[in-house]
Design brief:
The protein has 287 residues and is an alpha/beta fold. It is built from 9 helices and 10 strands. Bound molecules: phosphoenolpyruvate (PEP) and manganese (II) ion.
């Protein structure tokens, strides 16, 4: 009988982490990258404020949902295509690649016209028809872990993409549901480190959805950097109190700036660096 476990995602004995290109210039899977922006794209002003803040603090890519997978049908569902246009315009203006969630293969033509990276959300991690459709396109996929998915199920979801022909895949640990409901989710950092050790794909951490609380986002981002993640996915909003989605976990521009400084310090302390930062040898070289 043929193997049914993950095969193509596994790292060979001397194989390095695969570098996945986001847009023209950003490489994920080498130096540390931070993708940030609002949970949901809401308005021109909101997208501009979040995007400008991400760029000013050294973020490497913009995120924002135009199609939101909401638990309640009565919650804000996203702006749809006009939202994608706002994000795309911000990305062009700031020269940053953009990442947005695709919920249905029918959205592919529109998404391929606008976004650099197709995000598959936790709720769609095992939407196999969507995964098969995305396996046939030449665009990187950011695959989030389902909140009820084991590591093996997560890797097998990635296997659908690789097996179908798309090897431009980045994984993202975003917390799982456990017996403890105090926090929004339980961040599985050890699971992330385990996956890093076994799999050739870059692995990101999303401490925003993993905790649901803005005050815990930076501490968990620092921990993720120390534990070897390839980067972060962070929600940023200029006015978390009035955000239309996930306000309690959104970082203000000021808090995001502090996160970036802290993560750089942790990376430097562990012999790594933030993409775009000066090489360690050059720091202080002018003295
Ligand atoms: C998101 O990143 O916008 C999102 C909805 O996250 P998740 O799919 O992890 O819940
Ligand atoms: Mn969100």
């Amino acid at each position: 009988m043929a193997a049914s476990g993950p095969v193509k995602v596994m790292r060979g004995p001397h194989e390095a982490t695969r570098k996945v290109r986001f847009g023209h210039a950003l490489e994920v899977g080498g130096d540390f990258v931070v993708i940030a922006g609002p949970c949901a794209l809401e308005s021109q002003d909101q997208v501009d404020q979040a995007s400008n803040a991400v760029k000013a603090s050294g973020g490497h890519a913009l995120r924002g949902g135009a199609f939101k997978p909401r638990t309640s049908p009565y919650s804000f569902q996203g702006l749809g295509e006009p939202g994608l246009m706002l994000l795309s315009e911000a990305g062009r203006r700031l020269r940053l690649p953009i990442v947005s969630e695709i919920m249905d293969a029918a959205q592919l033509p529109m998404m391929l016209d606008t976004v650099d990276v197709l995000q598959v959300g936790a709720r769609n991690m095992q939407n196999f028809a969507l995964l098969r459709a995305l396996s046939k396109v030449e665009r990187p996929v950011l695959l989030k872990r389902g909140f009820g998915a084991t590591i093996d199920e997560w890797l097998l979801a990635a296997e659908y993409l690789l097996d179908g022909g798309n090897d431009q895949v980045v994984l993202c640990e975003r917390g799982i549901r456990s017996f403890d409901t105090t926090l929004r989710n339980t961040l599985d950092l050890a699971g992330m480190a385990y996956v890093k050790s076994k799999v050739k794909l870059p692995v990101l951490v999303d401490p925003s959805h993993a905790t649901g609380m803005s005050g815990l986002v930076t501490p968990m981002a620092l921990a993720a950097a120390a534990a070897g993640a390839d980067g972060l996915l962070i929600e940023v909003h200029h006015s978390p109190a009035t955000a239309m989605c996930d306000g309690p976990q959104a970082l203000t521009p000021e808090a995001f700036d502090q996160l970036m400084r802290g993560v750089s310090a942790v990376l430097n302390a562990t012999g790594r660096r933030m993409a775009g930062d000066k090489p360690l040898a050059a720091v202080g070289g002018a003295r």
